[in-house]
Design brief:
alpha+beta, 4-stranded antiparallel beta sheet, 736 residues, 4-stranded mixed beta sheet, 23 helices, single chain, elongated
């Protein structure tokens, strides 16, 4: 406190600033002030009141505010115009523009322009000692003229801007003087009647500098080498949400006051990067993540992809390096493995995209499907980027690579790449997968510039399809709407759902996918379900390893179903009626449940109140039948016959043998084209299964011979487990 505070003079306003005070032992001066007021009978009421108080983010000490004389810009005169123009800006998220920023403008006060600092842009205002006259300097040229007047009046001895030439815009000319403190403080100007004028000691708010950036960067209006409309207003700006009252406002305010327009068309308001627990990062707290160490360990692309796809840019991000590792494995690892698979067989067959483009109508349905999905992805990604939604774009690309390209298209087409002659079907597969990789490199390049560049260069160097040295120099792909077949996409999505349901049953029953099963049963609950499944039947059978699909026209007497409310969804809609509804549903027979499932809706009266139910508000479950296991997903029901006949078991054993031989080939580092000879040690439990499937095993493993022997001699044999209880020895050797 200063001397005006009498007995409290010299004491610290807050004890945290007293170096001699041990924390918690020094009473704050507030208490002594209250005591004094009470002694003088001037205290109306005193109490402890807990409230938020600003603290220095570096020292954690409470901040003290002092009232100071300041210079203001009368922004309130432009308030209505600022509010109106703000509504034309595309805010991401919209709530920042209508809420935080909009509220700031609604409660706008005049802009406090001046700051009591040393470093920065000086306030260009000179005033007389009695404040009766003042001048605001608008340019260096004007300042030079005013200084010349001061020199002539004897107020200044020399002109520090003497070397400055107003018509010269070179750096050398502008470096001939310095307008910063302390030099500018030595400049004294003179009024028309001879009074000296001294510069106001304050500086200009640095946010004024930032707000003037669009014009200042090109020295506008003194230099106009570029037309203002060529770079103003900006298409978009991006900064932290804390800039609502900073950069966002100063850009907007200056543009409105000077030009009556906006400074930016779109504003992306970034959220904060927090630690994985949701706390602000701080070196002092020890929870800060070193970005350079993170990038060095995980790479810049995986870090960027994680940050972009984990949450929208305007939402706060709980940063966890485990998430980066998952991205690196799930997206980049999957994409790399897909490329590695393609390049392996493309190099074997010498594919370099020199063949004529196979017409889409002549390609297999699965090629047409993935190209349809690819063009749907191009369309969606382009729209997302254009709408400043990189998170949606990145997630869409990730889903395509994982769910469609790798785990469906490549899985189902593997045999097309490594089996048979260099036929039109194989060329179609190569051209289709190549196109997918090429487009993925282009779509992902804004988020993962380095990985996308390497992927593009690796494939384009071989084919030369695009005349560009870099993916970043190619044109962004355009969706070919004629290739988008929504019916085909729906059919394939159905195939994926059915396959997923069957595979989940296998997992639950611990039946390996390599073990063939006889059939799946599919109730026809939708009118077009059979025709849809028939078109993709071969894909489902191949993926889930069953012999056939059997359709059930009437499920009554075959599948037993139960229905109950989805209490979370019904609760908000029906309230206390949910329990009576549940009781009524318990009495529903199979005919009523099947009818409800087909129509998707049902109406009834409960306790005198009309109730309309939809299929999305209930849970329908199908009970398992003897030898059958069922799975339900929405209105789709699949039953899997889990009975394993001796013939099916034998085929399953053959597939296990094939798998173990393929693993041995890989372990020995054999090329995929290498022929081998196989020795198989006899195992009575499976000898019959192996005998009946030798030709099949040889064709799948490129074995020229397959010999079953009583005992394999030597050290080349390898023990393999074929089931949980059966193991034997196998030896393979490459044919020279």
């Amino acid at each position: 406190f200063t001397e005006q505070m009498g007995e409290f003079a010299g004491r610290y306003v807050k004890p945290e600033y007293d170096a001699d005070c041990v924390a918690g032992t020094c009473p704050p001066v507030d208490i002594d002030i209250i005591v004094k007021l009470k002694h003088e009978n001037k205290a109306f009421k005193s109490e402890k009141y807990e409230h938020s108080y600003p603290h220095c983010w570096r020292t954690d000490k409470p901040i003290l505010y002092y009232p100071l004389d300041s210079w203001f810009i009368r922004t309130t005169a432009y308030k209505e115009e600022m509010i109106a123009l703000n509504k034309t800006i595309n805010w991401k998220p919209e709530s920042t523009g209508t809420g935080r920023f909009g509220n700031w403008l609604e409660n706008l006060v005049d802009w406090n322009l001046s700051r009591s600092r040393f470093w920065g842009t000086p306030l260009p205002i000179w005033r007389t000692v009695d404040n009766s006259q003042e001048i605001c300097i608008c340019s260096v040229a004007q300042l030079k003229e005013e200084v010349e007047k001061a020199v002539a009046a004897g107020v200044m001895k020399t002109n520090p801007l003497e070397k400055y030439q107003p018509s010269d815009t070179t750096d050398e000319n502008y470096h001939s003087f310095d307008l910063h403190r302390p030099f500018v403080d030595d400049i004294i100007l003179v009024t028309a009647d001879g009074k000296a004028m001294y510069r106001e000691p304050d500086l200009i708010d640095v946010w004024f500098d930032s707000g003037a950036m669009p014009y200042a960067q090109y020295h506008y209006p003194f230099e106009q080498t570029r037309a203002l409309e060529s770079y103003f207003p900006a298409d978009f700006i991006a900064e932290g949400v804390d800039q609502t009252r900073g950069w966002f406002f100063t850009l907007h305010a200056i543009a409105v006051m000077l030009f009556g327009g906006v400074a930016y068309k779109t504003c992306v308001s970034n959220g904060l990067v927090l630690d994985k627990s949701g706390n602000k990062m701080s070196k002092r707290l020890g929870n800060a993540v070193d970005p350079f160490e993170t990038i060095s360990k995980y790479g810049p692309d995986a870090t960027r992809w994680y940050m972009i796809t984990n949450s929208q840019p305007w939402d706060n991000l709980k940063f966890d390096t485990e998430g980066i590792e998952e991205i690196r494995r799930k997206f980049f690892g999957t994409l790399y493995n897909t490329y590695a698979f393609f390049s392996l067989y493309a190099n074997i067959d010498g594919f370099s995209y020199k063949e004529a483009e196979i017409p889409i109508r002549e390609r297999p349905e699965i090629d047409r499907w993935i190209l349809s999905e690819l063009n749907s992805l191009i369309k969606l990604t382009d729209e997302c980027y254009a709408d400043y939604e990189p998170t949606k774009a990145g997630r869409a690309i990730s889903d395509f690579v994982d769910e469609h390209l790798s785990n469906w298209y490549v899985r189902l087409c593997r045999r097309r790449f490594w089996r048979g002659d260099y036929s039109q079907d194989k060329i179609s597969a190569y051209q289709t997968l190549y196109r997918c990789l090429e487009v993925i490199a282009q779509l992902s390049s804004p988020i993962a510039p380095f990985f996308a560049e390497r992927l593009f260069v690796d494939i384009n160097t071989v084919t030369g399809r695009l005349n560009a040295d870099s993916v970043h120099l190619t044109s962004f792909p355009k969706a070919d709407l004629s290739l988008i077949d929504k019916e085909l996409e729906e059919r394939m999505e159905l195939a994926q759902k059915i396959s997923s349901m069957v595979l989940s049953i296998r997992k639950k029953m611990n039946i390996r996918v390599r073990q063939p099963l006889s059939k799946i049963m599919l109730p026809l609950l939708a009118d077009n379900l059979k025709s849809q499944v028939e078109a993709i039947k071969h894909l489902i059978i191949s993926e889930v390893n069953v012999k056939e699909i059997e359709y059930i026209e009437d499920t009554a007497g075959i599948l037993v179903k139960t229905v109950k409310p989805d209490f979370k969804k019904m609760g908000s809609k029906f309230g206390k009626l949910v329990k009576p509804i549940a009781e009524i549903m318990k009495a529903w027979d199979q005919t009523l449940i099947n009818g409800f499932e087909k129509s998707g809706e049902y109406s009834m009266v409960v306790e005198g109140t009309p109730v309309h139910l939809t299929i999305g508000e209930v849970e329908i479950r199908t009970e398992d039948l003897p030898g059958m296991q069922t799975s339900t997903m929405g209105s789709l029901v699949v039953a899997l016959d889990t009975t394993i006949t001796p013939e099916l078991w034998q085929e399953g054993i053959a597939r296990e043998v094939i798998n173990r031989i393929q693993n041995l080939r890989k372990d020995k580092g054999l090329d995929v084209t290498d022929k081998i000879i196989v020795k198989f040690q006899s195992q009575p439990d499976i000898d019959v299964a192996v005998h009946y499937n030798i030709a099949y095993i040889c064709s799948e493993t490129l074995a020229q011979s397959f010999e079953v022997v009583a005992m394999i001699e030597g050290n080349e044999k390898v023990q393999v487990d074929l089931t949980d209880t059966i193991s034997t020895f196998i030896e393979i050797n490459r044919v020279d």
